Q: What sequence folds into this?
């Protein structure tokens, strides 16, 4: 918003709607559309249109505020120079955005692959842990079941053997 308003002010003082800063204003518009979230883009476009209407009204009602170029040649030189450096800035900005987007996309893809690998490792660990704990728990359950059901029928030596086995298994 500050960029659009600032460029618009420069635009007014550099020849009005025909001034050389028209490319810079469009660069800021494009940047605004690229950078801002989707739900704010319409406000950037509306602001850009409003600023252009405002500049046209100033140019129509207060032409004395517009600073004109001394000659048509200086206007063309200014416009061509602005077109060249604005095109270069647009190119740099698009490369920067594309490069950062590509890097972030690759980081996200690597992170996703790593996340899937970690999730698979966790599932494998839990599966192994469950399998490794199954036999000892079954032994403990079986021996304790024998002990509780038949404790009055067993002699002291048999009870001692079962208790030792439960202890070893645990």
A:
């Amino acid at each position: 918003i500050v960029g659009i308003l600032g460029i618009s002010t420069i635009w007014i003082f550099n020849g009005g709607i025909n001034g050389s800063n028209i490319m810079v204003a469009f660069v800021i518009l494009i940047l605004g559309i690229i950078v801002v979230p989707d739900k704010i883009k319409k406000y950037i476009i509306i602001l850009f249109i409003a600023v252009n209407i405002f500049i046209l009204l100033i140019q129509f009602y207060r032409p004395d505020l517009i600073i004109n170029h001394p000659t048509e040649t200086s206007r063309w030189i200014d416009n061509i120079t602005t077109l060249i450096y604005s095109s270069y800035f647009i190119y740099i900005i698009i490369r920067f955005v594309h490069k950062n987007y590509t890097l972030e996309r690759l980081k996200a893809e690597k992170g996703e692959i790593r996340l899937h690998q970690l999730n698979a490792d966790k599932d494998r660990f839990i599966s192994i842990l469950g399998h490794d704990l199954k036999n000892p728990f079954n032994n403990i359950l079986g021996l304790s079941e024998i002990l509780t059901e038949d404790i009055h029928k067993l002699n002291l030596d048999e009870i001692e053997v079962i208790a030792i086995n439960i202890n070893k298994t645990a």
